[in-house]
Amino acid sequence: MNDPLAIKKELESLGYKVLSNIRMRHNQELDLNKIVSCIRNCKVFICCISDDYAANNNCRMEMQYCKQTAHKSLIPIIVGDGGWDWQGFGVGMLIAGERYIDFKKRDLFDEKFDNLKIQVGNLVADKSGTAESAAEQTTKPENNKKDIFVSYCWKNSYLSKENNEVP
Predict the structure, then answer these.
(1) Which of 11, 118, 135, 164 is least surrounded by CB atoms within 10 angstroms?
(2) CB-CB contact of 126 with 17 (8 Å)
(3) pLDDT of residue 105
């Protein structure tokens, strides 16, 4: 399985401003408000889907908010060591018809990341109304928004364990 943090770092190395949900999961009430704000202010929402992601209530809420309320561009990427059980959850319904990128095989990372890079580039350019590079956009002081929000769930994440959502 490919590490969502590695994907985040690769996107940042291209000049995108990327925020993820990993550091916002300590105080559930406060952090959900912050996550909603971040989703509202991002241009692209990348969800790193795995069986653990699909089983996590907060991850499903993030994805649902992104799609049904904020109407953000969504790029589903498949990660994790498990199977495809996530398709039987609401997550599978939320991405029905969406084109996803399968990042499960490490040896295909470069190929899959090239595909992600193209999709992100097209969506960020569409949302900004220009074809400026991400690096040019991030140097503008008036641009306080994040380009990308990366949503994922670790098998051993604090909230998943606390809520007995994963073993």
Answers:
(1) 164
(2) no
(3) 87
Residue that is written with structure tokens 């989703």 in the block: 39
C-alpha gyration radius of the chain: 15
Q: Which residue has the tokens 């990993």?
A: 22
> Is the separation of the CB atoms in 89 and 59 below 8 Å?
no
**Residues 118, 11 contacting (CB under 8 angstroms):** no
- Taking the chain (167 residues) in runs of 10, the rounded mean pLDDT of each run is 82 93 52 85 93 85 92 91 76 81 90 95 72 42 69 61 49
- Two structure tokens written together for 101: 């990128």
Q: Are strands 101-102 and 44-49 parallel, antiparallel or unpaired?
A: unpaired
Distance CA 28, CA 137 (A): 32
Q: Residues with Cβ < 8 Å from 27, sequence gap 6 or more?
A: none
> Among the residues of 56-155, which ranges form H helices?
57-64, 90-94, 109-128, 134-138
Q: Measured between alpha carbons, how far is 39 from 57 in angstroms, rounded to an integer? A: 16
Structure tokens at 128: 């900004």
